[in-house]
Amino acid sequence: MKIAVASDHAGYKLKEEIKRHLAEKNYDVLDFGSASAELKVDYPDWGFKAAGAVASHKAERGILVCGTGIGMSIVANKVRGIRAALCHDHFTAVMSRRHNDANVLVLGARVLGADVARDMVDVWLDEPFEGGRHSFRLDKISAYEEENCKKLEASSGGGRTVVIDHPLVRHKLGLLRNKETSSKDFRDLVQEVAGLMVYEVTRHLPLEETEIETPIEKTRVFTLSGKKLAVVPVLRAGLGMVEGILKLVPNAKVGHIGLYRDPKTLKPVDYYCKLPCDISEREIFVVDPMLATGGSAVAAVGHIIERGGKKISLVSLIAAPEGIATFHEAHPDVDIFVAAVDSHLNEHCYIVPGLGDAGDRLFGTK
């Protein structure tokens, strides 16, 4: 049987003890982190990974550990198909299997001793599900979960619109809006805001553990697990965001898409497209400071999809509701990340209050 395990820093020592115990009993253990009791981490980052492995049948069962067990139990039960039980003793571990068919056991390292935890793990893994009336009750839970997942999917309208409103982002965005800001300062601020947005845009990137040696001793650390990234600016204004992103993800490849808005029709006109040859294998961030009508962004993402791009996100500084609606209608599975959603478009299709023409302000052409 494969067992997925995970913990935060508070549960690390107990997780390691449980791993040793499971190995002695010849279970196949999949450890999803964390890797240290000293490095403070966020329990959702590790709990979701292990619970996801159980939900996707990469593991038959899961065991999660944090300080009290409460946080990890909340995390695991957010994952579709997971029945996580926070247990405190032999009896609750038995009953979580017998009556609830729990597929994830959650333990509190600051609540339990190692001997009690080992005993709970043993009985939890050995105890069968009784079925009968309990199956009928679990069927009700599954039916509710299935129905509400469908409702959420139907109401979500596809891709998300994520507003990154960190205080630093909001402060720098205020400076960007000021018409007195010089072109040099405007360029610097666009790079800075784009760099700050990268933290949220890349939050989902997977990590893997590797062993290194510090000046003191060997330890295990986390690195990005071979993720291929591409940044694709929409020319010309999108160029202003690229350097801020590359400072944090310097190994990303850069493509370019050239579009301009016809002043009469207000429709995007194509004039250039050059993408990395392995674009189909990369996670792609299309960058353009302004999402106004949505026409250019829709066209840019369309070009990438035609050339094999699959995992795409749009990153803009400011968006208008009209542009967001148009973009999601055309590309319902693509996420939008913005620093602000403004009021509306004016009669010239400029974002209000906006910050003017980002390209002109970046390059001093007006």
Short key terms for the protein model shown above:
single chain, 366 residues, alpha/beta, Ribose 5-phosphate Isomerase B, Chain: A, Rossmann fold, 2 domains, nine-stranded mixed β-sheet, 12 helices, 18 strands, elongated
Describe this structure in words.
- The chain is of the alpha/beta class.
- It has two domains: 2-152, Ribose 5-phosphate Isomerase B, Chain: A, CATH 3.40.1400; 161-363, Rossmann fold.
- The chain has helices at 12-24, 43-55, 70-76, 90-98, 114-126, 133-156, 167-177, 183-201, 239-246, 295-306, 321-330, 358-363; strands at residues 2-7, 28-31, 61-66, 84-86, 104-108, 161-163, 207-213, 218-224, 229-235, 253-254, 256-261, 268-274, 283-287, 290-291, 311-319, 335-341, 344-345, 351-352.
- Strands 6, 9, 10, 11, 12, 13, 14, 15 and 16 form a nine-stranded mixed sheet that branches. It has a five-stranded parallel sheet with strand order 2-1-3-5-4, with helices on both faces. A two-stranded antiparallel sheet has the order 7-8.
- Helix 1 packs across helix 5.
- The relative contact order is 0.09.
- The model is unreliable at 152-158 (pLDDT under 50).
- Pfam families: LacAB_rpiB, UPRTase.
- 5-phospho-alpha-D-ribose 1-diphosphate binds at residues 236, 261, 288-296, 357.
Using only CA atoms, what is the Rg? Answer: 25 Å
- Average pLDDT number: 89
CATH class of the largest domain: Alpha Beta
H/E element order: EHEHEHEHEHHEHHEEEHEEEEEHEHEEEH
| Share of helical residues | 25-40%
Output the number of helix runs. Answer: 12
Q: Largest beta sheet, briefly?
A: 9 strands, mixed
**Share of β-strand residues:** 15-25%
Structural class: alpha/beta
Task: Indicate how many domains the architecture comprises.
Answer: 2
Uncertain residue segments: 152-158
- The count of DSSP E runs of length 2 or more, i.e. the number of strands, is 18
CATH architecture of the largest domain: 3-Layer(aba) Sandwich
- Quote the distance from N terminus to C terminus: 67 Å
Annotated CATH topology of the largest domain: Rossmann fold
**What would you call the shape?**
elongated
GO molecular function, one term: GTP binding
InterPro entries: PRTase-like, PRTase_dom, RpiB, RpiB_LacA_LacB, RpiB_LacA_LacB_sf, SPI_LacAB/RpiB, Upp_B, UPRT
GO biological process, one term: uracil salvage
GO cellular component, one term: cytoplasm
